[in-house]
Write a structure and sequence with these properties.
With about 210 residues, the protein is mainly beta. The protein has one helix and 15 strands; from the N terminus they run E-E-E-E-E-E-E-H-E-E-E-E-E-E-E-E.
Length: about 210
């Protein structure tokens, strides 16, 4: 599959599809129904396509129950092999480009196609029980030293609380565990026992 930008507001995808089967003995009257063309919807439209069937066969296009294209036909003459190749262009609306890019990244990652792009990130689900809440020990002016996504260690200084009248350090906020900062408070003024940070624990033991 090839990918290219078109006029800045939409994307054109060039697709190639191939499937085939070999028979142990000659067959005739072979019928087929193939999904070898992309599904069309409000976000993507089929611009052009070609379908090649071997051996030569009569075929037609039909819609399935989900609105997708079916290539249906039959090979009447005896044959020991069958293959179908399709090729064409789909235009994708700009609103769907992000989703398309995500699918292409995944297909590239698993080796199903060659697509030169940012490799993306592997996502994971984090439960609330795997995070440690770091509370402010006092109220005052909040100053943080770490950002979300930053790795931290046990006992590391994450921030401080300053006295609003003297600007002196009233309390230090220390990290209770090693891990990755998931959330960091942004507002400059805070009250006591407010959640200043959430840290995803590096090592979590499920005791349930």
């Amino acid at each position: 599959m090839q990918y290219r930008q078109h006029r800045g507001t939409s994307t054109e995808l060039e697709f190639h599809f191939h499937t085939g089967v070999e028979f142990s003995a000659p067959v005739s009257g072979h019928t087929f129904a193939l999904h070898c063309l992309p599904v069309e919807d409000d976000a993507k439209k089929l611009q052009s396509y070609t379908v090649r069937i071997e051996p030569a066969a009569e075929y037609g296009l039909h819609r399935d129950g989900f609105g997708g294209w079916l290539v249906c036909g039959s090979c009447r003459e005896p044959h020991t092999g069958f293959c179908c190749d399709s090729h064409g262009i789909v235009r994708v609306d700009g609103r769907a480009q992000e989703a398309v890019a995500a699918v292409l990244r995944y297909l590239s990652r698993v080796g199903l196609l060659r697509y030169n792009c940012h490799s993306g990130y592997l996502s994971s689900v984090v439960q609330e029980s795997e995070m440690a809440n770091v509370l402010t020990p006092a109220g005052g002016i909040f100053r943080r030293f770490v950002e979300p996504g930053q790795e931290v260690e046990y006992g590391q200084k994450l921030g401080v609380i300053l006295d609003p009248f003297t600007a002196e350090v009233e309390a230090e906020i220390l990290c209770p565990t090693s891990g990755v900062v998931f959330f960091a408070l942004k507002k400059p003024l805070t009250t006591e026992h407010e959640v200043a940070f959430k840290v995803i624990r590096r090592l979590f033991v499920n005791r349930s």
